[in-house]
Amino acid sequence: MEISQSAHESDQKKFALPVDSEHKSTEFRIFSLAAPHMRAFHLSWISFFACFVSTFAAPPLLPIIRDNLDLTATDIGNAGIAAVSGAVFARITMGTACDLFGPRLASATLTLLTAPAVYCTSISNSALSFLLVRFFTGFSLATFVSTQFWMSSLFSSKVVGTANGVAGGWGNLGGGATQLIMPLVFDLIRHIGATTFTAWRIAFFIPALFQTLSAYDGNYSQLQKSGDKHKDKFTRVFYHAVTNYRGWILALTYGYCFGVELTIDNIIAQYFYDRFNVDLHTGGIIAASFGLANLFSRPGGGMLSDFTAKKFGMRGRLWTLWIVQSLGGVFCILLGRVGSLSVSIAVMLIFSVFVQAACGLTFGVVPFVSRRSLGIISGMTGGGGNVGAVLTQVIFFRGSRYSTETGLTLMGVMIICCTLVIPLIYFPQWGGMLCGPSSNDTTEEDYYMSEWSSAEKEQGFHRASLKFSENSRTERGKRIRSAPTPNNGTPTNTYV
């Protein structure tokens, strides 16, 4: 399907940035506020950042909170698990909501619904109430899905990995920022005159207020109206998501990159506090350095995904994901083995770069799994991250079965094992890690049109997918055998 010059000229009048036939920006200008693309980018990552701060506001103050509420090691472990388990189904639900109602409404609604739980943390008076507020606050992490859905809807295949990586990475910065923010806010309130057990409670009003104010999330309507979107059927969207095995593999592997990141956010401050006898403020700074690496590590993963795709196509994205995530597992093993404070910090920083870059690399692949069910695929993958965090904390960091350092080593082994399924991801039009495109001359149109029935095509519902097929031909790369391109844009085969 050819795009006329007049169509491109019309697009330039509608949008400040150059766009493709789907009205997705073909450039990512990080310092721009151009509407709707870059403005929505900045508003979405800030909202996700605020939710991350709220969810992990408790860990840096746990040494104080546990004394006030008489929490045992098991209580703390259960609360940490609760904080990440709530988002498992919330992320899948968020993906569905994005497909059906759009990311703006879905994100703002969830942000406002979970903010009261952050406020209520200040009145926790038992292990159970502390667990419940962390559980309900954790639902807000599902805003990650709307952020990634938004970026995949706003930016073309040439820069989608970068956009997803920067938005996700800068949002995840909240996990590191809160390690600095909460101890500082706590100290300030205590110096003003509050007692220790009162100061930590007042401190929670800061992330709660920040989350509430971040609910405003830009205007997607201009792009949505221009993109010929129609209200889809939930049953069809859900079916094409759950029957696409690539989504399940990415959900598993994401469980052991982002899931590991969530686990570290929950345990690392207390780990350095207890093992190396650092004070609360120092432990917070060390722990913050892990999360703050998201400033460049996850964005770097997204950029690396786009860079390798230019030369090697989808196969380059998959190989890079496997290598980077496996190296993350190696450094996680080392983190649990070293016994020196300085060496542990150095290894943790290297580990953070690889595990967070793997997150960015994962969402360099996700947008291509399904055009019609992008939201649910994003939700499944994001939910997989939370499932991985829950399982890891239940198995290795709950109670006294394993020491924290042993748990870290075993978690590293799990990371390496889970990456072994990445070679199973195969796109017939582009190939996979171990082999090239299908010999059946499958095209991008064949792959993405198979999600639509003949009746739906007659009504024109497939047009957005047809445009996406054309724009995703860049995933063939320059150094691999290209699949054929149909002259009339009409697929001849079907493939799921």
Automatic annotation (TrEMBL):
It is found in: Membrane. Residues 484-496 have a biased composition (Low complexity). The chain crosses the membrane at residues 43-64, 100-119, 131-151, 276-297, 318-339, 345-369, 376-396, 408-427. The keyword Transmembrane helix applies. Keywords: Membrane, Transmembrane, Transmembrane helix. It is a multi-pass membrane protein. Belongs to the major facilitator superfamily. Phosphate:H(+) symporter (TC 2.A.1.9) family. Belongs to the major facilitator superfamily. Nitrate/nitrite porter (TC 2.A.1.8) family. Gene3D superfamilies: MFS general substrate transporter like domains. It comes from the Eukaryota. Residues 467-496 are annotated as: Disordered. It holds the Pfam family MFS_1. InterPro entries: MFS (IPR011701), MFS_trans_sf (IPR036259), NO3_transporter (IPR044772). This is Uncharacterized protein.
